[in-house]
């Protein structure tokens, strides 16, 4: 049911194989690496910072001025200046796109590929729907350009220090991009999963697992709050203790502890837990996973219920949504409370609308059958 078989088994053309060989020789001789990044928000910007710190020259495009990134040594140009981007990168060019999922990817990809040459590589590092990624790979390959669907995990903190990458796409394209991804990933945090679409598919499954884990931790908070013991002053320390040797030790448990104690990235969170908005936004990609599971009769009750709990958070005063909101802020700097831009991406992020259920679509209203086109890319993929 979840197979992502891709019928195009064409081998890389001779020009691409030559480019890959020459690139490996360049890398092995430690000549300067140059990377293009389209979208310099929370994820793209931190990846750019990390790359520069590791002696990779970065040329970026963004819809906003980014003086802080320019001060860090990143060459920043205006959004849409793909001709400049192509001129500044050494062939075979490697470009990482860090944009919100949806038709925006298609629009920017069309412009970018028009400036690239055969054997160049484009990576989509956002949370795109994997069927969209299969189609985009075919579109790029028609021009001889490699397209890698690059699931990226770890949020802004890990993007700055070492991310986790799950990559789908042709082996030859992956080998060209591998030196960059290996440099920017945490140790053992890079895998070439397989054929086109598989990288974004496994990232989607990852996000489903993440949702289930968030919900179980949040329900633990709910139980601690509702119990007969007054633990309010000890809960942060309790989660810290659990994160040292307990079976549930994890980054999310660490974030829950820091969130309850207003430490590190939670310094801007409400001081009192009860003041954390219990409205939890998300960009909707796990909804796609649940829909596909239903279509294939694959039981995923925990992931499904975690999505339902997010729906329920939008209008109640329970503690569990607050806990989820704190942890999501910790790993992705996701906002507290409602945010219109994120809500929009929940609706428009999936371009392949086969069997899509859109609660906002009114029967007979043809204008709602396709997501509204967005002209800028001021935003970030979710974590």
UniProtKB/TrEMBL annotation:
Question: From which domain of life does this come?
Answer: Archaea
The protein in question is named: 6-phosphogluconate dehydrogenase-like protein
Question: What family does this chain come from, according to its entry?
Answer: Belongs to the 6-phosphogluconate dehydrogenase family.
What are the GO MF terms of this UniProt record?
Answer: NADP binding; phosphogluconate dehydrogenase (decarboxylating) activity
Taxonomic source organism: Halogeometricum pallidum JCM 14848
Q: Region entry Disordered: which residue ranges?
A: 348-383
6-phosphogluconate dehydrogenase C-terminal domain sequence ranges: 199-353
What does the UniProt keyword field contain? Gluconate utilization, Oxidoreductase
